[in-house]
Fold these 2 entries.
Entry 1:
Amino acid sequence: MSGRAKRAGFYFLTLVIVFFSLLPFLWFLDTSLKTQREVTATPPELFPSGSLHSYQSAIEQYNLLHYVKNSIIVAGATTLITLIISVFAGYALARLRIKYKGVIMGSLLLVSMFPQISIAGPVWKILQSFGWLNTYQGLILPYVTLTLPLGVWILTSFFKELPEELEKAARVDGCSHFQALFKIIVPLAAPGVFTAAILIFIYAWNEFFFALLIMTQQKYQTLPVGIALFQGQYTMPWGEIAAASTVATVPLVLLVFLFQKRIIRGLSAGAVKG
Amino acid sequence: MFALSLIAPCFLFILTFAFYPIAYSFFLSLHRIIISLPGLEQPFIWFGNYKELFHDKIALQSLVNTFLFVFTTTFFELLFGLAIALAINKHFRGRGIVRAAVLIPWAIPTVVASQMWRFIFNDTYGLLNYAFFGSDTALYQAWLADPLFAFLAIVAADVWKTSSFAALIILAGLQTIPDELYDAAKIDGATAWQRFVKITLPLVKPALLIALLFRTMDAFRVFDLVFVMTQGGPADSTNVLQFYGYKKIFAEGLMGYGSTISVLVFFVTLLISLLYLKMIGTRLFGERS
């Protein structure tokens, strides 16, 4: 094969990969911009007339903004709390002497891998006994637990890469461990902290299983629950589902295009570096 | 002491909302508990629930379905993941945009992805029918109403959604292979295929194993796709353990019986993850412990 044919083949293959990666999303975006009649046309109409009717209907009849608000509160609070706890734990695991470090890291990894059903019933019972079903904290607490492994693993691996000398110098100058952590380590590891924040936010924004169990009242439901349970009176409201899905997805698409490098680095942090 | 106080909050969360619930699941599974009938109290019935579980045909089918789902999805995800990783590992113009595009399926909420695919497989408005049969609407199929196609549909949706994650892990592995190895092989006259089999594959194997571990564990908890696309049907052909457990505990309120499924799932995944970790060896922790 000549070099040129090879290159053409490579670009073609890449295009196919990109096309199939984007197709379902683009099709839903397309659907969300159709009129009611275009959505239910058979055979499907490929191009939309650019109507915003589905968005309007999703907001007015299906309380879309309400779900968006709940998702922002839950995902935002989860990200903040998990980050703070992970910074402490990550620092300790990266820098200080701790017995059974391997066991701690291993059990965190196990927590991130177990199917949620193995803890679902008891978590529901615990929250019920506190009266926390259908409350924000009722969902945020399990989310913090489930995102901690991610946060701690990423931050530990970022903290480890920082030169220890800076911190030692600060300690010699009379800084406490605490001051060294917040004045030297965290600012230097800001890219790592930010990466962890993005990944935790995406996890909490997308989670469905616990949100479905814990938030049974519409008032507190997050976007994924809302989108999964959208029901029309007689037919599926595909236009509205597509509109809500687009609203739920656009922030993530922006995050991915802006921070693609960080996300890739964060996801493979620790996994492959051994 | 200082170090311990730093990890204490993390530990507290994990203990309360992960380890304690796992043990509590086992306790619950030894009782008869019906959420909607609190008047019955919670009699201790030893392994009665487990006896029932062994004769539960739907539980067995969910177990088989879950394993089938795990095998087929991880196989295709590693295959496509490797292909994608090889493509985006090259240097070319627009690589950043291609990488971002490939990440989109991973970032999309699974519920949203499930609705997208449910719409694509729709019997009247679906893109798939249109792609196959054009405007000949008489031929349109109700894919999700067919046991086999419904199962393949959730497999396809999962493979679409998570191949990019596998690709990222594999990509990180590819990037650790020094270019000099390929240069030397070229000088020695190795073909592209030989270079792939003799250099790339063996050196990327650890990354493949880690991707396999993460994907297997994640495939085990498939829930969103099933909940949105098929509700376990038709005829339980897409029922999986996590969905069946959810239905028993929360839809039917059988907290005691449902907990046997929680315990079963826990031990199955524990066993598999220990097997994998043994295969991967200390790589994962070597640097840290």
Entry 2:
Amino acid sequence: MNPPEYAQAVRDALSDLPEADRDELLEDLDDHLAEVAAESDVPLDERLGTPEAYAAELRAAYEGKPAGAETRHDRRSVASQVRDRVTGAARHTHDRLLRLTPYRQLTAFLPELRPGWWVVRGYVIAALALSVLHRSTVLVPDDVAAWAFALGVVWVSVWLGRRTLEERPRFWWRLTAVTANAAGGVLLFGVLLTVSTTNSEPRPYAAQMKAPVPVSAFDGVYNLYPYAEDGTPLHGIRLYDQDGRPLTLDPEMYGYALDQRCLADPPLANEYPLRLFSYFSDVPMEPTQPDATGVFPGPQSICPSPSPGPASLAEAPPADTPPPPHPATPGTPGPIPAAPGPASTASASPSPALPSSPSPSSGGS
Amino acid sequence: MLKGVLDVAVLAVLNERDSYGYDVVRRLREAGLEDVGDASVYGTLRRLFKAGALTSYVVPSDEGPYRKYYGLNDNGRDLLATSAKTWSAFAETMDHLLKELRAR
């Protein structure tokens, strides 16, 4: 309700007063209400109560009677009383804080930021929806359709914001809007937090975006079997060259393919040992040669459990080999921005899922 | 609020300096009368004006509509002086009455 409408409603509620009195009383009500309205963004009927209640209080004050609580709150619904409590408390806090200059400046400045906020919240909602759809974090839409969707959501958000600004919606709707905005803000904060943490964590897909380096130097090699210093076989070891490019082999050349049957995501071509299966037989591959320590690793089950073990990747490279992109220092600036980090640590484990796998200390059969 | 108290409060605020309606409301709230109703203040101002205790004049404002300022005239100052005396006596009486209660 804008000031003229509110003033008119008050006038109507006082229509039983003698005209001279009424004119005298309401002479500058319009200016007064405009003044009240200019003071804050909160709609008049929230700050002053209903026009009828306002008229009753006005009448009591004008006639020199005390304006008791009953004239303001009689026969009010619980909802509107709750409403008055909430807005009353908010207004009270607001009025008190207005005495502080920084708060005044902030409240004067905030409305100017509103359009920006509409755009941001629309984008965040779109990114979130796309992320849910793609089941991975989407920060920037990756195709035309996604962009169109994001722009559409931003447009709707701005449209809603403008409409809300013009229409002065009702209290409960405003409360909902405020809650939604607060939730959006928290969400945005969360997204930013996620972004900042993902930036410091390994991003295997980012690493994959670098062109892989086929290791062609070793003719006849189509798989690698890393072992820890103590001879424990390691799994999920991702190998990169000095520029952060994944080191890949070419098992297809030898009649083998990456085994994807046990995995939700396609396996990384540089995660060793590769899970291979032969095109010709369905048996998962295992090394058929003894390794450097002269130990035969045991057979693997088809779908080894991915449960992480105690060994960390930091122990993985043998002491005398040049260290790969060092995973234990994810934040370290270096020539390998896409260095794998702690997440690969989780999968780099002496595979506890291989109970039959003999360790060198137990002699190996 | 007790009958007449708002009158004295409004007169006191205006005695300090002339004000327009909403400014009176704000100053009363800042002074501690936080529950004072906007309509009560506006109605009181109009009644005091009608009773001849106030002068009023219009001042253009930079930001909004013209503001109607109210100030005390001689009648208003007399009224304030009388009311203040009455109020002080009343407050003293109440103080005295409640002294025993506080002492306990």
